[in-house]
Amino acid sequence: PDPERRLTAREMLSHPWVCGDAAATTKMADSAIKLARFKDLRTKVEAGIFAVLVDKGNRDSTLSEANIASTPSGDAVVQSELNRAEKESTRRNASSTHIMKRAFEVFDAEGKGYVSPGDLGRIVKVATGKALS
């Protein structure tokens, strides 16, 4: 992501993808199956995000040892990692920290500054008990 190599707004608006000139005119093979998989993935990711936001919305709730038993996957390692991230996030932040920032810090448990596909997978597995594939 070199800013000098980015398209300008004018260049982007005339790009074939934006203008619709690059769109395929033939039906994608197995498009119904691919769309169903995408919708399933989206539902899992949304459930994971929602679970974190609900948890972060209640200042009195924590990701506790008790949650391990209720985690469908029973993945104590993942739950333990979330417990650690929650404790670290609570320690670093004042109670006035925005809910989205607190939720982001649970996703980005390593403090990288971004959420990776692995981070999403970890949260989805804890929230739904199903691994992303």
Fold and architecture overview:
The protein contains seven helices and no strands. About 9% of the residues have low confidence. The protein is 59% helix and 0% strand. The two termini are 27 Å apart. The chain is flat, with a radius of gyration of 20 Å. With 133 residues, it is an all-alpha fold.
Specify the number of helices. 7
Question: Which segments are poorly predicted (pLDDT under 50) over 5 or more consecutive residues?
Answer: 60-71
- Structural class, judged by helices and strands? mainly alpha
Strand content: under 5%
Radius of gyration: 20 Å
What coarse outline follows from CA principal-axis ratios?
flat
Cα(first) to Cα(last) distance is 27 Å
Q: Which whole number gives the mean pLDDT?
A: 75
Helix content: 55-70%
Biggest beta-sheet profile: none
Q: Order of helices and strands, N to C? A: HHHHHHH
- How many strands? 0
Summarize the structure.
The chain is mostly helical. Helix 3 packs across helix 6.
Helix-strand layout with pairing:
Blueprint: H1 9-13, H2 16-19, H3 31-57, H4 66-70, H5 76-92, H6 99-107, H7 117-128
